[in-house]
Design brief:
Elements: H1 3-15, H2 38-60, H3 62-68, H4 70-83, H5 98-103, H6 114-129, H7 138-142, E1 152-156, E2 161-165, H8 169-175, E3 194-201, E4 204-210, H9 212-222, H10 227-237, H11 247-256, E5 260-265
Antiparallel strand pairs: 1-5, 2-3, 3-4
Helix pairs in contact: 2-4, 3-4, 3-6, 6-8, 9-10
């Protein structure tokens, strides 16, 4: 490696490899320590790096930050960063393990909904970055023989994400938006089974709360299972809340929304 590349690698190692002490500063011999120690100097750079990474986490998890407060968020973000240093310079990829990290925090154990809210936010983030999908070709579907329809594999758009929770995370998310409605009612004491599909339409990410049978259909498609299996999964998931369902209408609905973007024959 060139001298510059060695200096850059050492700087990254010093700033992004753990707590700084006198024994792990690779750049110690390169630094002017006449007015400040190598440990003190590198700590300045590390604190600046941690502040920037925390800002990135804040952009990905704004609702979590609102729920726990800015000071607590910065404190736990610092703990998370020390446990999960970025491995690339692309902060869009950083923070995937944050929801489980929050769930494991002793200080947040009473906030049983926090992990699922964080997971919802991460999926929002990923959805916004996903590739665009092609428009569904209805003419190709019309050419499929009825006898072959049950063997079709319907394909979800790249931006689609599915999540289910025992908490009303959809309402929690909505209540913490800048334009939140004042009419949303929420009880954190009840068991609130919630099924959500996220998808992007042009530049806007949409969130829809759906019934268990619809989730079962979309999960089957996400797992690459044919239409016949999706129908069985939907029927097995019907609850009293679902009333009567129509698989044909479910399929039409999600094709028109752009959630389903294509199909293939299994």
């Amino acid at each position: 490696m060139t001298k510059l590349a060695q200096l850059q690698a050492s700087f990254i190692k010093d700033c992004l490899s753990g707590p700084i002490n006198t024994d792990n500063i690779s750049l110690a011999k390169e630094l002017d320590t006449s007015s400040i120690s190598a440990q003190g100097l590198m700590a300045i750079y590390q604190n600046s790096a941690i502040a920037n990474i925390t800002s990135s986490l804040s952009l990905s998890y704004p609702v979590v930050e609102k729920l726990v407060g800015k000071d607590f968020f910065e404190q736990v973000s610092r703990q998370y960063i020390f446990n999960h240093w970025p491995t690339t310079g692309n902060m869009d990829d950083y923070g995937e393990k944050f929801p489980q990290f929050l769930a494991d925090l002793a200080q947040a154990k009473h906030l049983t909904y926090l992990r699922d809210v964080a997971q919802l936010e991460w999926l929002f983030h990923q959805c916004s970055l996903a590739k665009d999908s092609i428009a569904f070709d209805w003419t190709l579907l019309a050419k499929v023989a009825p006898a072959d329809a049950l063997q079709l594999n319907f394909i979800l758009a790249p931006s689609v994400a599915l999540i289910k929770s025992t908490h009303a995370i959809d309402k929690i998310w909505l209540m913490n938006q800048d334009n939140a409605s004042q009419d949303i009612e929420l009880s954190l004491d009840d068991d609130n089974e919630t099924n959500i599909v996220l998808f992007r339409q042009e530049l806007k990410t949409e969130m829809m709360t759906i019934c268990a049978s619809e989730l079962a259909v979309l999960e089957s498609f996400a797992n690459g299972q044919p239409f016949a299996v999706a129908i069985e999964a939907a029927m097995a998931s019907i609850t009293a809340m679902d009333a009567e369902i129509s698989i044909d209408l479910i399929l039409k609905k999600y094709i028109e929304l752009g959630v389903i973007c294509a199909f293939s024959m299994s």
